[in-house]
Specification:
The chain has about 160 residues and is an all-alpha fold. Helices cover about 65% and strands about 0% of the residues. The protein is built from nine helices and no strands. Helix 1 packs across helix 3. The longest helix has 22 residues.
């Protein structure tokens, strides 16, 4: 089963239709319909927005989640054909930053970004085992230490693409 069928099952179980999900996430309803009808995999950024709107874990609807542990980098960030790198690759990165990180920065303030940079740099300098332990700890904290007001603010971001 692909992401589309799983999404349809979850929508049905929650009594929600595609148009309602579209309004909650800002994702065009035809993109959601296409994914469901073709049973295709969801883009990870869409899956994050949908998971937030449905109050579920992203791994429930996204087979290409970088947090699932069973996908490779090529599946998440496919390489461009020879000769098409450069500007197109940079454009993809800029688009990701504009639609994923910028809304968080606007919500919580740009003064938090040096801390985020520091955390990411430190995280990626750790061993695989240490990074796995950090992720495990974050998942525990997510279950037991989530601030409901902050969660509500993050879920209010509608324009992630």
């Amino acid at each position: 089963m692909g992401d589309g069928k799983r999404l349809k099952e979850i929508l049905d179980s929650k009594g929600m239709n595609v148009r309602e999900l579209s309004r909650k996430t800002g994702i065009n309803h035809s993109s959601i319909y296409t994914s469901i009808n073709r049973d295709s995999n969801l883009r990870f950024d869409y899956a994050l927005r949908i998971a937030n709107a449905l109050d579920i874990d992203v791994n429930e609807i996204c087979s290409a989640s970088p947090f699932s542990g069973d996908v490779n980098a090529e599946e998440i960030y496919p390489t461009l054909p020879d000769g098409l790198g450069g500007i197109l690759e940079n454009n993809r990165i800029k688009t990701y930053l504009v639609h994923s990180l910028a809304p968080l920065m606007q919500l919580f303030g740009s003064e938090a970004m040096p801390d985020v940079d520091n955390l990411l740099t430190t995280f990626y300098s750790l061993t695989d085992e240490s990074r796995s332990e950090i992720i495990e700890q974050i998942m525990i904290k997510k279950k037991h230490g989530t601030d409901p007001e902050r969660l509500k603010e993050v879920k209010s971001i509608q324009n992630w693409k």
